[in-house]
Amino acid sequence: MDIETLAVRLGVSVRFVRRLVAERRMPFLKIGKFIRFDPADVDAWIESRRVGPSS
């Protein structure tokens, strides 16, 4: 998925997603000049940052 789609999915701004990528704080793929995200990697990244007991 692209940056815009991920921003909508996470409920954050595109700028915030770009900052996460620049700081290498989340997994991404660079294909040529394009930044893309594997949905499975994003789900795992979100799960690894969960605080408290899982439901």
Characterization of the model:
- This protein is mainly α and 55 residues long.
- The protein has one domain.
- It contains three helices and two strands.
- The chain has helices at residues 3-10, 14-22, 39-48; strands spanning 29-31, 34-36.
- A two-stranded antiparallel sheet has the order 1-2.
- Helix 1 (3-10) packs across helix 2 (14-22).
- The protein is globular.
In short:
With 55 residues, the chain is mainly alpha-helical.
Question: Secondary-structure map with pairings?
Answer:
Elements lengths: L2 H8 L3 H9 L6 E3 L2 E3 L2 H10 L7
Antiparallel strand pairs: 1-2
Helix pairs in contact: 1-2
Highlighted features:
about 55 residues, two-stranded antiparallel sheet, 2 strands, globular
Weakly predicted, low-confidence segments: none
Number of strands: 2
Q: How many domains comprise the coordinates?
A: 1
Number of helices: 3
Biggest sheet architecture:
2 strands, antiparallel
N-end to C-end Cα span: 27 Å
H/E element order: HHEEH
Strand content: 5-15%
Class of secondary structure makeup: mainly alpha
The coarse silhouette is globular
- What share of the residues lie within helices? 40-55%
- Within the largest sheet, what's the order of strands? 1-2
Mean pLDDT: 94
The radius of gyration over CA amounts to: 12 Å
